[in-house]
Amino acid sequence: MMENKVFLSFTFYSTILILKMYVVAIITGQVRLRKKAFANPEDALRNGGVQFCREDPDVERCRRAHRNDMENIFPFLFLGAIYSLLDPSPSVARIHFLIFCVGRIIHTIAYLLRLRAPTRSVAYSVAQLPCFSMALQILLATTPY
C-alpha cells in the first residue's frame, strides 16, 4: 500500500482536509465562547447562565461551514480511496486531489471571512470537478461488473 504513489498522495491531501475540519471545529468552539452562545444548557450554566443557551449568527456560520465540509469531504474520501485503486496516472491523480483540497480551503476561508460573492461558490464548484471526474472514472472502470 505504501508503494502506491497515488494512494500516498491521496492520504496526504485527505489528512490536510481532515486537519482543516478540526480547525473549523476549534474555531466554532472559540466563537461560541467569545459570543457566549452555547447549544446546551449545561454548557451555558458553566459559562455564565442558562440565558446563554442560544443561537448566534456567527456561530451558525461556523457550523454551516463545518457541515458543508462534511457534506463534501466525506464523499471525496470515498471517491479518492476507490480512485486510488484504479491505478491512475500519479500526476493526474495528484492534480485531482490538489484541486479539491485547495478548493475546499478557499471555500472555508471565504465562508468564515464572509468574502465577496462569488468567491465561495466558485471555490465549491472548482472543488467538485475532480470529484465528478473520479466518480465517472470509477463508474467506467466498474461498469462491466
Features of the shown structure:
145 residues; 5 helices; 77% helix; 0% strand
Question: What is the N-to-C order of secondary-structure elements (H for helix, E for strand)?
Answer: HHHHH
Note poorly predicted spans.
none
Biggest sheet statistics: none
Average pLDDT for all residues = 97
Number of strands: 0
Total count of helical runs of at least 4 residues: 5
Amino-to-carboxy terminus distance = 24 Å
User: What sort of overall outline do the alpha carbons produce when their principal axes are compared?
Assistant: elongated
Radius of gyration over all CA atoms, rounded: 19 Å
Measured as a percent range, the helix fraction is: over 70%
Helix and strand content put the structural class at mainly alpha
Give a written overview of the molecule.
The protein is mainly α and 145 residues long. It has helices at 5-35, 41-46, 57-84, 90-112, 119-142. The longest helix is centred in the N-terminal third of the chain and has 31 residues, at 5-35. It is elongated. The mean pLDDT is 97.
